[in-house]
Amino acid sequence: MKNKVYQPATISEALDLTNSEKDFIFIAGGTDVIVNSKQGNAVADVMIDINGIEELKQFTVRENYLEIGTGITLGDISRDNRIAELFPALREAAISVATPVIRETATVGGNILCENRCNFYNQSEWWREAVGYCLKCNGDICIVTGGNRRCFSKFISDTAVAMIGYNAEITIVQSAGEKIIPLIDLFTGDGINPFRKEKESIIKNIILPTDKNFRSEFRKLRPRRSLDFTSLTSVVTIDSNGIIRIALGGVDPMPILITGSVNDNLDFLIQNAVKKPRVIDNDYYPRRYRKQMIEHFVSTSLNNLLKI
Questions:
Q1: What is the pTM assigned to this prediction?
Q2: CA-CA 20 to 30 A from 113: which of 70, 141, 199, 254?
Q3: Sheet of 24-27, strand order
Q4: In the predicted model, what is the mean pLDDT of residues 57-71?
Q5: What is the CATH number of the domain that holds 221?
Q6: b/e per residue 76-110 (b: at least 16 CB within 10 A)
């Protein structure tokens, strides 16, 4: 990351810059982008710093909804009383990310768009050259699977998993206007290009329903309770209508969502949660163990929430 740096004051100014500068990357907190740039995994001639856009830093309360600006830091998410009361799993997810110092800089939007990770990709340039370039860094083979058609780098955003559990939507802004989509629809399942989003667009906010009376439980697997990226994140929610949402991260190139109701066969829902993720050995923990932990996390959360 080098050369020009722009600091627009509004979303409109930021979008105008995308029309005049083609080789660019957006940056807010920079806790993911800067590290990737140091490793040679995020390279652009122009950096558009959107951290100064106040419109992205607002909590907005509307009838039956809470809108969270994507420029709000994870530290602010963890301290907000409304989040703690209505969406406790989101608060726990925010607290689980990285370290206290990093959370004061890292934004919720940046965490949603955190680049997929793999043990064979998130290394220095010389390491990747020595081992051999994988599909995600313009190589011709997945080093883990030996295949040449699909990248299985894992999705690792903890806050996105929590928000998907709460049936979140997002507002995407581009020059042509705004659109609102379910957060789960942002993700492609492709480890190389994981986001269904135009490069020239900005995610303005996250929209969470406040009238569902969610019960929820958050769980996370990682070697240490601080700093480490997730090996498995699970959020299970049950709303006032008895709708169950099981959201998983860290075990597939995209977040996994299983839906059902309290009247369904719970063992069937649990087995769907175990079978659906495309787990491979690109993590600290072996594939088999992570599969076992999916079953443990989901079944324990359902038992706790339903008091079985």
A1: 0.96
A2: 141
A3: 4-6, 46-49, 24-27
A4: 97
A5: 3.30.390.50
A6: bbbebeebeebbbbbbbbbbbbbeeebbebbbbbb
